[in-house]
Design brief:
With 179 residues, the chain is α/β, with parallel strands linked by helices. It has two domains: 72 residues, no CATH class; 97 residues, Zincin-like.
């Protein structure tokens, strides 16, 4: 097995990873993987891929792992659960989610709710938006714990949040569906 350790400067790696190392392996035929070791991102690639392909994969994996690390940080802080409690108490008569978390896999919706088990998932993309937009999505998903559909009763609950119309306009401009 041939193993090369090459430091790699990748945009997006600054601040998130101290450095990015590329490991080329003759034993690796097709798969490409990445792992975080301390503050170093280690990307393992087949020996036979070109430098251009390597750079492409390193950029892709850096983005994925940065997103994962960011999600873990956001979920670990407990701020999301605390905010959901505050919003529920203020606008939705204290309804509670059993779990609420940021997810990186939510690509076509801002949020989702499973009323059967009380879980709420929010797209990690929301973390970059203004707090009043995030609050709206949390209220929207919490309202689904009371009313699982988008009926008039549901919208009456959601519209207790005073910035509903403004937040909906903001999100429509961003182009994803509501959860």
């Amino acid at each position: 097995m041939v193993l090369n350790r090459l430091p790699f400067d990748s945009p997006g790696a600054e601040g998130e990873f101290q450095r990015v190392e590329v490991h080329r392996s003759s034993r690796r035929k097709k798969t490409i993987s990445a792992e975080i070791v301390g503050d170093v991102l280690v990307v393992s690639v087949p020996e036979r891929i070109s430098r251009a392909e390597e750079q492409e994969w390193v950029a892709r994996m850096t983005g994925r792992m940065s997103e994962r690390r960011r999600k873990e940080r956001l979920n670990a802080e407990g701020d999301l659960a605390q905010r959901a409690v505050e919003l529920a108490d203020r606008f939705l008569d204290g309804v509670r989610a059993s779990d609420i978390a940021w997810v990186e896999t939510q690509r076509s919706r801002w949020g989702s709710c499973s009323p059967d088990d009380g879980t709420i998932r929010l797209s990690l993309a929301l973390a970059a938006y203004p707090s009043w937009v995030r609050d709206y999505v949390i209220v929207h998903e919490l309202a689904h714990l009371v009313v699982p559909d988008h009926s008039d009763r549901f919208w009456a609950l959601v519209e207790r949040y005073p910035l509903t119309e403004r937040a909906r306009g903001f999100l429509i401009a961003k182009g994803m569906e509501e959860g």
